[in-house]
Amino acid sequence: MEKKSQTMEDEDPIYRKLQEHLDKLPIGFPPTESGIEIRILRHLFTLEEAELALNLSTAFPEKLNSIFRRMRDTGISKDELEEKLDKMVKKGLIQGGDTVKMLGYGKSYSCAPFIVGIFEFQANRLTKKFFEDYEEYLHGPFSKEYLNPNTPFQFRTIPVEKSLSIHQSISIYDDVKQIIENASGPFGVTNCICKQGRDILGKPCTHTDLRETCISINEGALQGLQVGYVREISKNEAIGILRKAQDAGLVLIPGNSQKPSFICTCCGDCCQVLTSLKKMPKPVDFIESNYFAAVNEELCDTCETCIERCKMEALKIADGSVSVDLDRCIGCGNCVSTCPSNAIQLIKKEKETVPPKDIVDLYIQLIKGKS
């Protein structure tokens, strides 16, 4: 007898189960009243892929043998399972595969968070409808998930190089050049997916024409190369790309660990992190930074260069001088690097925030924060 095709309504329970499953990740995938999150899952996963993902860990990668033992009753062979999971890795739906194998842990797989993860893996294959749904979801319930002051943040801000004096003490994890220099590699670069999406919507970036600006490092580069959205580059090329981005006034936003797997370079009208932060009354509470800007009123000639440069609208003219709103300043240093009168400097906060050791440590802290 021919198997009856499943209707959209029949598919709903599987996608809802997948949403609930992904919501267990360190950065979850919360439900909405509109159901936009289910539409997003349909954009990405076939029904078969959704059912497979339900069998994967939401914590850390599991070896293929463990996943196969759990699924043996379904009748799938180990080779078939591996083939299907590898295909899902290539589509950017899950993480692991050869990436984990190359790190020396054996071939393993796990669910990927929506951000940073599934969404970024869709670089170079975005559709207008998917990006529209993504933006609606991001600025709705999901913003509370990845910008949660009660848990460690996924992102941090580090100063642009030209904003720091040689006389200042700067920790290695706050020094963009040292992050790259100390990484073993490989290194990759990809088109900024946020700018790609805005281009598709006909709302291109107003800050720069640069597109290939986001750097992936170590395991981040390995995953990106496996999925196919990353172009491999040398260490020196990575440093050069980051310097071009800094000169263009983009904010340096690495993953929140001492050994980040990526460094995003973000503007104020495309970057989803910064645009979400700008809507907050006190952005400083939602992203980690060890610096803030300070103005020397005697040197300031109110040229407004810094005001134009700031992505957080943290600077304004008051009483004949520029003042800094410390609730909005995220310590990126862009205002410092272009001040013609050298009236602004970055000040290190009295209490330095030390980021988690690596992404595993970050995920452990996120999980603890949600429990």
Keywords:
single chain; 371 residues; alpha+beta; Alpha-Beta Plaits; 3 domains; five-stranded antiparallel sheet; three-stranded antiparallel sheet; 17 helices; 12 strands; 14% strand; elongated
Short description:
With 371 residues, this protein is an alpha+beta fold. It contains 17 helices and 12 strands.
Describe the structure.
The chain is an alpha+beta fold and 371 residues long. It has 3 domains: 8-127, no CATH class; 161-281 and 357-370, no CATH class; 285-348, Alpha-Beta Plaits (2-Layer Sandwich), CATH 3.30.70.20. It is built from 17 helices and 12 strands. It has helices at residues 8-22, 36-44, 47-53, 64-71, 78-90, 98-102, 114-121, 128-138, 141-146, 176-182, 193-200, 219-227, 235-247, 272-278, 305-309, 334-337, 359-370, and strands at 62-63, 94-97, 108-111, 187-191, 212-217, 231-233, 251-254, 262-266, 291-295, 315-318, 321-324, 344-348. The strands form 4 sheets. Strands 6-4-5-8-7 form a 5-stranded antiparallel β-sheet. Strands 1-3-2 form a 3-stranded antiparallel β-sheet. The chain has a two-stranded antiparallel sheet with strand order 9-12. A hairpin with a 7-residue loop joins strand 7 and strand 8 (262-266). Helix 1 runs parallel beside helix 3 and helix 10 runs antiparallel to helix 13. The protein is elongated, with a radius of gyration of 22 Å.
